[in-house]
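Input/output pair, single chain:
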Amino acid sequence: MARSIAWIVAILFLAFAVAPAAAGDRPINLSLVTPLQIFPETDSVKGLRINLIYGSNQDMKGLDLGLVNRTIGNQKGFQHGLVGYTEGNFVGWQDGLVSMTKGSFSGLQTGFYNEAGSGELFQWGFINHGGDVSGFQLGFINFAENLDGLQIGLLNIIKSKEKLPIFPIVNWKF
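Output:
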């Protein structure tokens, strides 16, 4: 039985791997360390990406798992790993020890250190950092350049706030 399942998985994997893709979109990618991956870093993945150590692709939509996950462009879906790094925009849930999105973020970021350039978000971690964001930061240290929302934590900083930009326990700006 296990041998039959292994053959089915192998056949499905090969079918997806060699299937023609529109504009470089691949349904699956498996990476040891970029560039040692099934499809090159310039291709996008719509489906499943598994990065055993480090993997990088242009755009990612779907389930993204691994130690270090990097997306050069935009990402939608769920990303989980030790480090998640998206250079473009992210929509969904980014979870890891370090979760970073340089562009606009819309969704949930969880981890020890969370960072988003802009967007609408809920950050839950030890250290949360946001640029021009709206939403909620829950952690020990919360920092935002400009926040339309609420911070709860030991130390809360809203750089653009004129009165009491640094406040313990709770801080807000609406």
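The first strand starts at residue 25 and ends at 33. The CA atoms of residues 50 and 65 lie 5 Å apart.
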